[in-house]
Design a protein that fits this description.
With about 220 residues, the chain is of the alpha/beta class. The chain has a single domain (about 5-215), classed as TIM Barrel. It has helices spanning about 5-15, 30-35, 50-55, 90-105, 125-135, 135-140, 160-180, 200-205, 215, and strands at about 20-25, 40-45, 65, 85-90, 110-115, 145-150, 190, 210. The chain is globular and about 50 Å long. The model has no long low-confidence stretch (mean pLDDT about 95). The structure holds pyridoxal-5'-phosphate. Pyridoxal-5'-phosphate binds near residues 67, 153 and 195.
């Protein structure tokens, strides 16, 4: 099926209040254009330089979501236009994002990446670590970032109940953070979870943003990188 049909099928099967991010990492610009031409505006990338190149070459009104591990020395490639950074996993990174955001005279929306899968290779924070950041004096000085919610990546597993447990955990963490720190802040509302193989379950468990790559663009070929 074509990119257009894939997007149409996904969009017609999800609630209208769930944001679909088309994860276009490794894909050529013509694939993004095909998605853009059928109305898709939110795209996800996990490499800062790749996102910069695509941002420069593609239409202005695309919303760029950064979903990968962000190195501090790469913030400069995305800070002036990024819509949402999904993958904040330390206070140090948050402080650097704030510094560059200030230089660019903007406020940048961010999510805390939560380690729900407990796989060794994955990044992310525990609930306690997030509380540690939000309670710190350093955090209170950060006027150029805005925390809008949480993001998580489920385990790579065929065990559906394991994945469901992880999504429930992320939602519980979201609710606890909301109650403890953001009760009066309307913008703290996002739960970014669910990919090609588990997005339907993620929506059942409360996802507000889903990140879908292969189901839209086909399998990725990393050998061409
Ligand atoms: C690659 C990636 C996705 C999309 O994965 P698919 O399985 O192709 O849908 C979603 N989220 C993150 C963080 C990713 O790195």
């Amino acid at each position: 099926m074509s990119i257009e049909e894939n997007i149409k099928n996904i969009k017609s099967s999800i609630p209208s209040n769930v944001t679909l991010i088309a994860v276009s990492k490794t894909k050529p610009e013509e694939d993004l254009i095909a998605a853009y031409n059928c109305g898709q505006r939110a795209f996800g990338e996990n490499k800062a330089q790749e996102m910069k190149r695509k941002h420069e070459n593609l239409p202005e009104d695309i919303q760029w979501h950064f979903i990968g591990h962000l190195q501090e020395n790469k913030i400069k490639y995305i800070i002036s236009y990024v819509t949402l950074i999904h993958s904040v996993d330390s206070l140090k990174l948050l402080k650097e994002i704030n510094k560059y955001a200030l230089k660019n005279n903007r406020k940048v929306d961010c999510l805390f990446e939560i380690d729900i899968s407990k796989e060794e290779s994955k990044f992310g924070l525990t609930y306690k670590e997030v509380c540690g950041i939000l309670d710190s004096e350093d955090y209170k000085q950060l006027d150029n970032i805005r925390i809008c919610g949480v993001m998580g990546i489920g385990s790579i597993t065929d065990d559906r109940e394991q994945t469901r447990k992880e999504f429930k955990e992320l939602r519980d963490i979201f609710i606890d953070l909301k109650n403890k720190y953001f009760a009066n802040e309307e913008h703290f509302k996002e739960i970014s979870m669910g990919m090609t193989h588990d997005y339907e379950m993620a929506i059942e468990e409360g996802a507000t943003i889903i990140r879908i790559g292969s189901k839209i663009f086909g399998a990725r070929d990393y050998s061409k990188q």
